[in-house]
# Entry
Amino acid sequence: MKVLVIGSGAREHALCRSLSLDPSVDSLYCAPGNPGIAEIAEQRQVDVTDAAAVADLAARLGVDLVVVGPEAPLVAGCADAVRARGIACFGPSAEAARLEGSKAFAKEVMAAAGVPTARSYVCTTPEEAAAALDAFGPPYVVKDDGLAAGKGVVVTDDVEVARAHAASCERVVIEEFLDGPEVSLFAVTDGTASVALQPAQDFKRVGDGDTGPNTGGMGAYSPLPWAPDGLADDIMATVVKPTVDEMRRRGTPFAGVLYVGLALTSRGPRVIEFNCRFGDPETQVVLARLITPLSSILHASATGRLADLEPLRWRDGAAVTVVVAAENYPGTPRTGDPVEGLADAADVPDAFVLHAGTRRAEGGGVLSSGGRVLSVTATGDTLAAARDRAYEAVGRIRLTGAQHRTDIAARALKGEITL
Ligand code: AMP
Ligand code: GLY
# Structure
């Protein structure tokens, strides 16, 4: 099978890594890719939000499957354009991608499908926002309605900060604060049948101890030793199936991966957000333990044959990823610095380095070019072993001003996460 992956982050590097190890994949392309991906896939240039250009590229390359990584090309209709050329595409239509593209739309679908989520108001004026903030009280949760790369959400005890964020967005969703540990579950679906990947946990805040602003994600681990038995089945039954059924009923079936972000509250799991694509950095740890060839799952989703897929197989043990971010991320990150120690980091047993914000330097080597620069991942027989290796590898990376969280998976390991 010839496969084209669209995107350029660590998630796409993880997807390409799994596909490059997949015996059914004989040609692998990535557009636009990054210097890490270039080592395992042929790189092509494309504007990922230009749906026609992506479809042209897929047709020119003669690929059997296109895998769209990020949300922006999905919301821009990439999957529709590729499918219109008769090429299988993993990822939802633009209509279905609204589950991520508009938080208000996601809330409406959840309400229609009876999916448990935070109570919320959609507000378009400062007066409406003030009333909604008063109705819920602190901590305040204010979400920009549109796509914001994980940074459109403000959770704060300060009503002035909450009001200011609401005022800076055209349309906001203000909702009830959900208490309890967070879980990310990826459900691959073909619009009718769905299959759960293993749950993971992400670390959204930039600083240790969940301090500082929200980011795209600073690290992840999987599986979750503290999760209740049957958690994935429960979420499939109460969240994924009703949502997938509702989207089909509306005539806009959702095929691809439905990313369910949840809080496990004292009243049960509640959806925090839907995304229409794999999570980053959770994908890095989920795929690290997947034995089933990835192409078989993605192709079955893209061609409506997921019901025929054998149960997924997983490696025992655990995986941990730690994001190495540039100085000043998630503000305006410092870029253009040499990233060194990549080979030394990859020498740590069972560790590997996935690239995100990197670019090739003129004289060879790699420079930082974005906020999240690398996603350093490791597996191990135990969560402790995976974590130790990931941090040993992180310790070998040299990048001026780099920052990373030192507490990824730490509370899980100490048994401090309780429901
Ligand atoms: P989102 O982009 O919707 O995933 O929000 C980013 C992060 O904000 C989530 O991962 C949570 O940590 C936090 N968050 C969002 N909504 C809520 C909520 N209703 N209650 C508590 N925390 C939330
Ligand atoms: N890790 C959070 C996200 O991908 O949105």
About this structure: The longest helix spans residues 231-249. The domain at 179-308 is CATH 3.30.470.20 (D-amino Acid Aminotransferase; Chain A, domain 1). The chain has four domains: 2-90, 120-175, 179-308, 318-414. Residues 118, 141, 143, 150, 153, 155, 175, 177-178, 182, 204, 214, 261, 272-273 surround adenosine monophosphate (ligand 1) (CB under 6 Å).
